Amino acid sequence: MQFGILSVGYDCFGIEGEFIQNPLLHLYHVYVRANEEFQKNENFIKSAKERARILENRSHEKVLLQWQRFREYSVNQYKEVYERLGVKFDYIHGESMYNQAALEIIKKLEELGLTEATSEGAILTKRKVNGEQTIPIVMLSSEGTSLYIARDVAAAIHRKQQFNFDRMFYVVDQEQTAHFVNLKYILRQMGYDWEKDLDHIKFGKVLGFSTRKGNVVFLDDIINEAKDRVLEYMKQTNTTKGSEENYKENAEILGVSSVIVNDLLRKRGTNYQFKWERAISLSGDSGIALQYSHARLHNLEKNSGINDCLSCNINFKAIDDPKAFQLLLCLSQFDECLLMTCSSLEPKEIPINAIKPDLLLQRSHINQAYLALKVNDEPASTAETRLVMFVAARSVLNEGMKLIGLKPLEKF
């Protein structure tokens, strides 16, 4: 139905030049206006429902071409945005590809005696709760178009057949929990015991999000705003090393780092209030602070004058210090944190170790050890041993940063 609303809305409110310039933003504005019409205009409602039916039946070439065009432009723009986050997609095959398969799923449910028709002509199945109460799950609308749940059932079956996955993750807002409970229930009723291998990776909402351009926020807006704020800070403080042409590149990396780490500080199902001041802080729990620690360790390693510290004989007296002990203990927990992440499906566990086992522990211990245990101007055996420890710290920090999607900076 959503595309039916958008399609008719674009006929009424779409501006081709604005669509070409920024497809996602313009389609969003069109969809908002179209939804307003859908709430009050009977003719618009009728047209949108008919447009959705036509698309599902693929009975009108012009409508189909419009959908394909909207999808192509949108996917391309999504790829550009996600590429800034270091995310690439190997395979894109959305639920809209399963319109015909969804109708076949509904037919199979009918054959299994798992559906019933309403007086309006819709087809639904029911999920039992506590053995008695039932919750209706509408599979086919009264207009004859399949609903999202039916297409998702078809998609799950196809993906199992094509990839024979061990587990499949749906990374979707936690407000869709009921949808995935229904999905797994229907698959189970159809005899697919692998439904237990489907996991809904729920995430919460970011509250209070706005940029300088307004309250409607897109991911691209967030990254651009973070980059601009970091660039402004860099120029004011002049803390970043490198030539002027490196400023924008570093600002992009630091901006992305600040957005990612700020989101991963909390459990993924938690709603939280976003604050720019915290996200781009050079101190405390931030991606920028994490980058600074990494760059400082790299600089120490590069300028130590020690060519091959890893082959040195360890002088344990050089690291006989509580700060060194805490840092080494923290580094030893890295693999354990990765295992915790795999079992809990909480990415928070990685930055917990990369930044601190309680968020900032590793970074905090690195900073404390860095200040207390000097490398430069120390006797060779002392300097080499301490450098080995700091090289190990940077290696673990580097790996942890890359695992959460950051590009570690060597200069800051």
From TrEMBL:
Enzyme class: ligase
Gene Ontology molecular function, alphabetical: arginine-tRNA ligase activity; ATP binding
Keyword flag Hydrolase: no
SUPFAM superfamilies xrefs: Anticodon-binding domain of a subclass of class I aminoacyl-tRNA synthetases (SSF47323), Nucleotidylyl transferase (SSF52374)
One of the GO BP terms on file: mitochondrial translation
Recorded GO CC terms: mitochondrion
Keywords in alphabetical order: Aminoacyl-tRNA synthetase, ATP-binding, Ligase, Nucleotide-binding, Protein biosynthesis
Keyword Phosphoprotein among UniProt keywords: no
Catalytic reaction list: tRNA(Arg) + L-arginine + ATP = L-arginyl-tRNA(Arg) + AMP + diphosphate
Domain DALR anticodon binding: 290-412
EC numbers, comma separated: 6.1.1.19
Cited PANTHER family: ARGININE--TRNA LIGASE, MITOCHONDRIAL-RELATED, ARGINYL-TRNA SYNTHETASE
Function: Catalyzes the attachment of arginine to tRNA(Arg) in a two-step reaction: arginine is first activated by ATP to form Arg-AMP and then transferred to the acceptor end of tRNA(Arg).
Family that this chain belongs to: Belongs to the class-I aminoacyl-tRNA synthetase family.
Protein name listed in UniProt: Probable arginine--tRNA ligase, mitochondrial
UniProt organism field: Leptotrombidium deliense
